[in-house]
């Protein structure tokens, strides 16, 4: 009966602690920030388009260098990921993904009955992948390779060369397969850093997915997308969307248009905030490097921190989570993503600067108590 596994990451949509460093987003947009006198009273609350509002699709397409007809609007990014898995993977067919990863992306593959082959990524290697890591898992039965860049939980991006090499190797080993790149964090760079170009331009069998949740601060709108230049796949995704949700909410789509029409100002301000949060986190890691080490992220509001094995033994790792809970702080346990428990995802984009500093101070006090108990 059970199709979806239980995972404690569901706590992120429950009651939040005082200092939530487990979240992977920035501050929420307020409705007033995108209305600006816009009148919604005349908006018909009718069915929308199965493919998605044409104006909204054009705005999304412009950010990815594709045509509006290449875009299918979905109910959040996870709806896109699920539809892609559902359409491409029949029960028993092979899919390839990476671990650690966002658990819902892996769960979508399991739920449709795919035989999942996993490429390991590790803290020790800085969560870097090369094409050889992926190609070892490819076979003639591979139907989908599902990757994320920048990755969740690490914020580490795949290099354009690695992605291009994977595309070339897939054409040799499994020419009928598709490559999905979840690019939700692609534009969430730091300060004046330039975002990487979308991978969707690398070939007709490359799919990009994304949403308004991470870079734009609008997870409550539940607007995401799948982008494919393959007309046959696009028709299947539209049919899949129609048969699951019919259409998106026209209100969500209209507000999403407002977000994207104002996105330069929205994203620029958030990039400055992310750069500040990253710098504060980096200073905290340096100040506590007797206890922790990290992998510096390439983009996004998240990074992976590890309790040093030479200082904190496995038996004491559980105490760490108990101690930070006493401080009112929550981080994302690495086991949520298929990593080891001594690794945790730390989100530095959500809290205002003063609260972020207070949360990091709470982590420092917890580490000090842990050190005193193990010395």
Structure report:
There is one protein chain. The protein has helices spanning 31-35, 54-62, 77-88, 103-111, 131-135, 160-173, 231-244, 250-261, 263-287, 314-326, 353-374, and strands spanning 19-20, 71-74, 94-99, 115-120, 142-148, 178-182, 206-211, 224-227, 292-295, 302-307, 329-330, 332-333, 343-347. The strands form 3 sheets. It has a 7-stranded mixed sheet with strand order 2-8-7-6-5-3-4, with helices on both faces. Strands 9-10-13-12 form a 4-stranded antiparallel sheet, with no helix packed on it. A two-stranded parallel sheet has the order 1-11. It has 2 domains: 8-26 and 265-374, Alpha-Beta Complex (Aspartate Aminotransferase, domain 1), CATH 3.90.1150.10; 40-263, Aspartate Aminotransferase, domain 2. Strand 5, helix 6 and strand 6 (178-182) form a beta-alpha-beta unit. The chain has 375 residues and is of the alpha/beta class.
């Amino acid at each position: 009966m059970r199709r979806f596994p239980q995972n404690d990451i569901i706590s992120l949509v429950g009651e939040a602690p005082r200092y939530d460093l487990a979240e992977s987003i920035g501050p929420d947009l307020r409705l007033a920030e995108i209305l600006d006198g816009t009148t919604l009273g005349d908006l018909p609350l009718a069915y929308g388009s199965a493919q998605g509002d044409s104006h909204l699709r054009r705005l999304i397409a412009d950010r990815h260098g594709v045509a509006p007809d290449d875009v299918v609007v979905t109910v959040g990014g996870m709806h896109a990921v699920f539809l892609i898995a559902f359409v491409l993977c029949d029960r028993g067919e092979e899919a390839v993904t990476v671990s650690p990863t966002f658990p819902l992306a892996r769960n979508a593959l399991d739920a449709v009955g795919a035989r999942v082959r996993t490429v390991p990524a590790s803290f020790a290697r800085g969560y870097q992948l090369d094409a050889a890591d992926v190609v070892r898992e490819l076979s003639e039965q591979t139907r989908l390779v599902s990757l994320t860049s920048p990755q969740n939980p690490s914020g580490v991006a795949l290099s354009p060369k690695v992605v291009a090499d994977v595309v070339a190797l897939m054409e040799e080993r499994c020419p009928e397969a598709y490559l999905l790149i979840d690019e939700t964090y692609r534009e969430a760079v730091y300060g004046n850093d330039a975002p990487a170009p979308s991978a969707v331009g690398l070939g007709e069998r490359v799919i990009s997915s994304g949403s308004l949740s991470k870079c734009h601060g609008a997870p409550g709108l539940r607007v995401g997308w799948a982008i494919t230049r393959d007309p046959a796949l696009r028709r299947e995704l539209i049919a899949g969307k129609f048969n699951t949700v019919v259409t998106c909410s026209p209100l969500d789509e209209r507000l999403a248009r407002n977000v994207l029409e104002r996105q330069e100002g929205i994203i620029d301000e958030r990039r400055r905030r992310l750069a500040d949060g990253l710098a504060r986190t980096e200073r905290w890691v340096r100040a506590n490097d007797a206890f922790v080490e990290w992998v510096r992220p390439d983009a996004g509001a998240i990074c992976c921190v590890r309790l040093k094995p030479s200082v904190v033994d496995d038996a004491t790792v559980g105490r760490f989570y108990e101690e930070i809970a006493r401080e009112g702080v929550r981080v994302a346990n690495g086991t949520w993503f298929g990593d080891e428990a001594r690794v945790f995802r730390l989100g530095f984009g959500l809290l205002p600067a003063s609260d972020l500093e207070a949360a990091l101070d709470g982590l420092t006090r917890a580490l000090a108590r842990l050190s005193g108990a193990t010395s």
